[in-house]
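Running this now, will post back.
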Amino acid sequence: MSLSKPNKKSIYFDGNCFLSCSQTSFLLDASNGLKQTVKIMRRYIIALQFLTILPIPSLKRYEPSELGRSAAWFPLVGFSIGAVLLLADTVFSWIFPRALVDALLIALLSLLTGALHLDGLADVFDGIASRGDKEKFLDVMKDSRVGAVGVAGLVMIVLLKYAALLAIPVNLKPELLLLFPSLGRFAQVIVMTGAKAVRNDGLGASFLSGMTTVQLLIAACCIIPLSWFLGNIAGLVALCMVSLWALSVKFYFTRRLSGINGDIVGFSSETAELIALLCLTATITIITRYT
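Update: finished.
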């Protein structure tokens, strides 16, 4: 039996079966969608690999530009860190009192990032205390030794984080544990977007070379709904204050050093986490007390 004349919109395979153009288009769209999903997951893993010490499959090869493009998913990395903190909080709460649990969570937060951001925090405090010109500031930050001001600033930030976390009501703690690390990583994206590298070497320069406004927009599309669903009004207030702080950090160091580096990005993250916790605690306290 002969086959009827095929439609011009048909594609033959082996002379017997054929797919319509609509079916072919669907398969192509599905293939493109899968490629985009793989690309997103790849960049998320790159971000996770550089911002944490979590045991994940290491990507051996990637383009330098992929580092900057992975910044779009920094808030989701922060959310992942928060998920680990939430799991630890659930476990620790079975055996320890609240004060000790929160101290352990702050320590775990530093451990998860390999204390990378704390190192940058201390270096920037030492640089500010040097009271010198641009080159002296950069030399102090590059020095592996930590000065007295760096130690004092580091201890102050960690203690304030602990106190702010301890002040959060127990019933709101799970959501806010997920939120404040996400806000800290969003601050990093703001600081890096449109900024120049103060030096052409280092990890900071590699990230900045691939950063565009697109990464900031994607990160914003992630963090805005997270702030609302996890923190409601308090979350949006914290987001606004963290964003203003990150813009201020970028403006100050761009004027002072004509650019930024990895230490400044780490400084922005640690201080933004503190600001997020303070804003969340303050907003919740005001709403509870006066409504």
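The chain has eleven helices and two strands. More later if anyone needs it.
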